[in-house]
Specification:
Layout lengths: L13 E5 L18 H26 L9 H18 L8 H9 E11 L3 E12 L7 E7 L5 E4 L2 E4 L5 H17 L6 E5 L14 H4 L5 E5 L5 H8 L4 H12 L5 H15 L6 E7 L15 H7 L3 E7 L24 E5 L10 H10 L6 E7 L6 H17 L2
Parallel strand pairs: 1-2, 4-12, 7-8, 7-12, 8-9, 9-10
Antiparallel strand pairs: 2-3, 3-4, 3-5, 5-6, 10-11
Helix pairs in contact: 1-7, 2-11, 3-11, 6-7, 10-11
Length: 403
Amino acid sequence: MLLNSTSARTVPSALYFDNTPIALCQNDQDVIGPGSALLMTVRKVVRSVRRIISVFLRDNFLFPLNRPDLNKACNLLHSEASEFVSRLTIASDNGRDDELKTVRKYFSISDSKIYVDSDNVSFVFNTRIVESKKPINGKSLRFVLFSFYGHKQITNNKETDWKPLNVQDQALGPLLVMRALKKNGVKLDSIITNSMGNIIISEFDSLSIEDKDLIPGTLIINRGLTSIKKAIIKLYTFPMRQILDCAVRISGWAADPETALINFLNDSAHHSPLKSRKIILIEALRDHYFSNEGGFDPNFHRQLEATGAKVFRGQFYPACLNERAHHAAPLDYLTNNFVSKIYGKEAMKIEDYESVSDSIARNIFLEGTAESHTNLYVGGNLETLDMATRGIYPLLASAAKSH
């Protein structure tokens, strides 16, 4: 047993799922209909050009770990993350880090493969399961970690790396994992989308009514992508800004989670059995990517509240770090200090000088009378499963010390 709770299904080391394709609106339609041989040739050329642009954007701007030639900084980060996970899982470690020992005492880590089969293509998704060994404050906790890297797809009996070519395909991975978990009796209670992991929300409003029920009642957006267009405006100037904006629209990478979330919540208000959703927005005031012109609208929390959702919005400034590091600062570095800006406290209350990790653990994971809480963590564009494990560590530590 991976969870000491009779009310929650375990996630096995291998999970098989016969898939009915998730219905997403298609924005990658052929620009030229069927016709003469000349038109068919033009269509193939257009598809080839679109694919070239898509791969270039994916591997150089959006999801760079698809490239084998990682820079030294990324290699160092991933090596450190792997070493950290080893220390977290090996009981013989004699280090003096009492917090790490406490987390190891209360949580176990294992990897699980999710096999998704359909008529045309099959997928093998690698996930990581972090679970409490025993209830914490009466509640068993489980985190299902999803990275956008390290997966396989099988087409015509040929196995290749899973490397999506547009927003829809990128979002499909975690959505298929969510459906597989649901079909096997694993109920998700919350989602954390970190940085570019927020790209999956851009497809929430395109889901069928049935698949909209995959989305749990609590969404936690941790310094997440607002839209590709806004990120381009934030990071580039003329003429690169105009070139990239055109390229992402042509190639199908023009994700807009900010608009999609509003649309999804408005639609869910009519079709979802959930009475109210909780939206937790965690932002950095000086986020290199997603602040100011690259950030959510100043009134975004009010727009979310207008849909009937309960909202917490916190903007934080970890003064001990260089501003370039604020986007990736650990959640326990984000505290409600005198610089912080807090809007909407219905979904979560944070005390003065309390860390975001402590507040989320207290208000979301350990709150209520349910016997268990299962969270899906969708990592960013530089996160392997080891990096994702490092990313949720402050939440594990906050939960463990609440015992």
